[in-house]
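for ur thesis appendix - Voltage-dependent calcium channel gamma-6 subunit. copy paste whatever u need, i formatted it the way the template wanted (i think)
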Amino acid sequence: MWSTFYMQEEDGRAGGGPGGGPSGLAGVMGMRGGVGKRRAAASASSTRQEGQVKMLFFVAIIGVALTILGLGTDYWVELAPPKTFYNNGTCLVAHYGLWKRCLTTLTDIDSQRESCGPANMPGEVDSNCTFFKFFTSGDNAVIFQKTTQKSLSVAAASLALLSLFLMVTAAVCIIMSLSKGEKFFLKPASVCFTLSGILVLLSLMVFHQSVLALLASDHTVPLHHELSWSASCVGIAGAILIVVGVLFMLLTLSCSPWERCLPHHHSAT
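the 3d part is after this line
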């Protein structure tokens, strides 16, 4: 009886039972193949996400560069009196930013304009640029008999500097995420980029309020004012940084918003 039992057991093993044979080997190979497919899918997903992070980081660098360009130049606003204010054929125009102001005397004035300027037109005779004393002695500046508002100007500059600090912090987080392969660093980077964009736009708004306060300080000399290309760079940079911050936040989600909206479709497939 025992010999018959052993012979049946050996026949089961040889015939492809659970412990051996072709079907057992196929099951093991199938399990290994499934694990390999999952690893390959995870590797492809990680590579795709790394490419998305690099692309968004490149766009963020463009926003940072535009911010630095706008903050470092002094063409935030241009001030120009009417041409009839001067009788000798020359015009005095002014342009300034967060840190300094420039007064320029022009001779070749566009006949189509009612006011002097713009400041970068040909015919320049003399240009005098001086830094504001807001950050040293605390003195206000006088431009065309109008006085600047120190508090608003200092607030705009402070918001701009704080936004730069947040940009640097976000860039460091992105570099650490790419070097260590950790998705965790994307969350603080997204928050910092979004806040930096908001602060840049707030700085531009506060600066515009300071310009309006300057114009309202004295009505002796009528002035035409317009925001120039430095302010445009700052505005575009703020919008770019906010969008990049939101997109980085979407990358930190466990699954895409499309998968959240269609869970039944993905479960069925």
